[in-house]
Amino acid sequence: MNALAKPETGGILALAIIIAILPFLLPNSYYLDVANRVGINAIVCVGLNLLIGYAGQISLGHAGFFALGAYFSGILVSNHGWPPLVAMLTGALFVGLLSYVIARPIMKLRGHYLAMGTLGMGIVISIVLNQEGELTGGPDGMSVDGFSAFGWEPGNEQVWYWMIGGLLLVAVWLALNLINSPVGRALRSVHGSEVAASVAGVDVAHYKVLIFVVSAVFASIAGSLFAHSSGFLTPSEGDFFHSIELVTMVVLGGMASVFGAVVGAALLTTLPQLLTVFHDYEMLVFGAALIITLIFMRRGLVPTLLSAFKRRKK
Amino acid sequence: MLAELLQFLFSGITVGAIYALVGLGFAIIYNASHVINFAQGEFVMLGGMGTVFFIGLGLPMPIAILLAIVLTVIVGLGLEKFAVEPARDAPIVTLIIITIGASIFFRGAAQVVWDRNIHSVPAFSGNDPIMIGGASILPQSLWIIGSTVVIVVALHLFFNRTMMGKAIIATSHNPLAAKLMGINTRIVLLLSFGLSALLGASAGILIAPISLTYTGVGIMLGLKGFCAAVLGGLGKPMGAIAGGLIVGISEVMTAGYISSAYKDAVAFIIILAVLFLMPNGLFGGRGTERV
Amino acid sequence: MTLLRVENLSKEFGAICAVEDLNFTINPGAIHSIIGPNGAGKTTLFNLITGVDSPSAGKIIFNDLDITGIPTFKLAGYGISRTFQNLQIFFNMSAVENVMVGNHLRNDSRFLPALFGFRSIKKGERVCRERAERIMCDVGLEEYIGSDADSMPYGALKWLEIARALASEPSMLLLDEPAAGLNPSETQEINELIKRIADMGITVVLVEHDMKLVMGVSDHIIVLDSGRKLAEGNADEIRRNPDVVKAYLGHRQKVC
Question: With an 8 Å Cβ cutoff, are C47 and B291 in contact?
């Protein structure tokens, strides 16, 4: 696991190169749109991976934070004329506070109760978004104005692509910094053994709450980006399925691996496009693929491939 | 006034019994393996849809029900054997995703083998409501409540009086010790999944005449059953029953007296409240970590 | 001046008294052992001292500070560290990182500097790693400096836990069955390590079953039986104490 830390500058470089080259390989703007979605999901997953992979916690409701960020941006900007950047930060602040309030009591519990708590929270958020039609447009959704900051607006998918790509690199950089610091190590110790971590002086509860809030804020910001870049929101962005999708991306791509989170996001966002070949069998194939992949690569793709690579070198 | 309350109570107990059965399934599997089986809801779906299928083949209702249960149990055993067993030492999050993958797989398979339409199942003994105290209750509701009681009693006897049942409980407390005592923990695990499948399928079959059935019916039912299980203290089967009833009754009361829009949220709001106030569920004891 | 004072300490788990009305003191600068038959309450005692469990009654005073009921994570700051009977190694990290966690309180654990990759954090990491590697060498684990925790043998892991405990620079180190699962030559090495640790000025308190180790290394022995203090003294006194001998031959579970 510690070997992943060393190639990180290489990793960021590789990611930057991929981001730089990709648009020239994609045939049309539809694919650019998909790439943007991948980037946005990746930002959420990088944060979520800190929670699940490094700190060893679970959240089955993270799409709720994503949707809250998205709707805050949508409502404040389109319905009240707020500047998008301010709306984004407000959403992030609200989500930060909400996640803090929820985390404090629940993080004292053992893992499955955390799962349930986050699950419940996510579902309640998505139901509220659905029901409060006057505020959110209800199940039919709402449209969102484009993003603008300091007089500049990303006009099309291409500009959004560079913006999202850049922000993804920033997110990855932040995550890697955190991991390679005493804070990051404290998080991992919480995962390793809460008792031993406490004895060593790690305030376990504090770190669990911290990382929950951090990952929630990542999701919220990604949500705001999504709101503006896609121009249209529905409450399904915050539903149980989306939360599970996000966790699946993290688990599949590789827990305790920042690049794994990016890979997982890329795979799972693009996979449905590939799976349409199977028509009616799409769901069946997807489910089977998920099971089989995880049975044989239980730490996820990137860590498994990396250790297989390490073993071959020996 | 009273008649209305009674009406809601009947509805609440009916739907609560269903949640109780689903929650029981969660609790039993959790007990045996510490896995949260997100495919539990699909057992419910298979029970209902399976019955529809077998009735469609021309079989009489009781046979169709039996076959649907058998089908679901086989699927449950298959889930354990092919998806959970091979990944037994994987991190808990991975196992959760695997069961979610299984749930997607089952739904996808059901859609392919059957269809995406909504189906109805005839009520077991007719549709004429029975009047009690000014409130009406469907015969099917009585079937649901009655069957749940029978199942719960049977389970209680099973866990407390039979060797196999006690083996399951022993394994849930300490798998290693159970193994050393000669209990075949792999069989216990298999049996737990089979039992949960049976419970899920029963729930699906019982509720189908009232609320119709389709391949997506398992999702919400599964989630609410999960709430019931957690409410009772994950791993305490009898707690799941109380949990199910509480969720069911609260849901119906909320829909009736407050707002039907937030009906679905009730289960989860209750769960959040309980987790904040009584972290180990209503009946869960304080866990102690041995170091 | 006493380092640790335990007053009327009791812990009940339901109807079972794991620890009942314990009183003893630990003076600094010596090696102390706590022995007793299985179920005597030794690990419970450690759990109480380190805040893993909270007492039903009584007080624990460390360096004249009442630490009863203080959350575990604060105790490292007061100078208390421990190892565990069932290894609590961080298997998701490398060996060095395990030891680095021990040094947590002396690291800069501010969030924002960490997030933005301040150079001071990176420098601190280098220093922390060097310290950890030095401690691993001191303890005899040089060959594992590049290893992952999950690839190390059991004996080495016991040493690793001790290294991690030492990294927090404790004034009192509690070792919970350090010789459990070790062969005689490894036990001899632990014997020597304990003496070396005591020479560093750290007060060592052992819980141990291996009598040879206990008698060979302890300045002061406390004998527990069924949660109560049975006897106290140096190795000779304990060896000759008839109550102690009887306790090891017959044992009852005490109900409060």
Answer: yes
